[in-house]
Design brief:
about 120 residues, alpha+beta, 5-stranded antiparallel β-sheet, 2 helices, globular
Length: about 120
């Protein structure tokens, strides 16, 4: 579980940022929004983001396209264990049902880091 005071606002300052911003901007699931999400997932997987399902309350995310940065504590367990001591981006990429979302997590690369499509 991540506490709200541990969340770092995602500056959306890399190549994935515009896709995340576009997902938040569109409120209905159009063909365009699905394509943006699918492209985002493909890019995140290419950059070795790990995918898992979790209760959205435990990660303080409210919907598909939401993201945050999080400095993973060195004693963290669970899905974030492989990222101990690292700054990560956590992204909500899908809805499973009953308050469960598909999340992706990976090491955050600061501005000017290229995420090629």
């Amino acid at each position: 579980m991540i506490n709200e005071n541990e969340i770092i606002k995602d500056p959306l300052d890399d190549a994935a940022g515009p896709m995340l911003a576009a997902l938040k901007k569109e409120k209905t699931w159009t063909k365009s929004r699905r394509a943006i999400r699918d492209n985002l997932v493909r890019i995140l997987k290419k950059h070795k983001y790990m995918e898992f399902d979790a209760n959205k309350k435990g990660f303080c995310l409210s919907g598909i396209g939401d993201s945050m940065l999080y400095q993973v504590p060195v004693k963290k367990t669970g899905h974030l264990l492989p990222f101990r001591g690292k700054l990560v981006r956590i992204v909500c990429t899908g809805y499973v049902g009953d308050f469960t979302y598909t999340l992706m997590v990976g090491k955050y690369k600061k501005k000017n880091a290229k995420i090629a499509a």
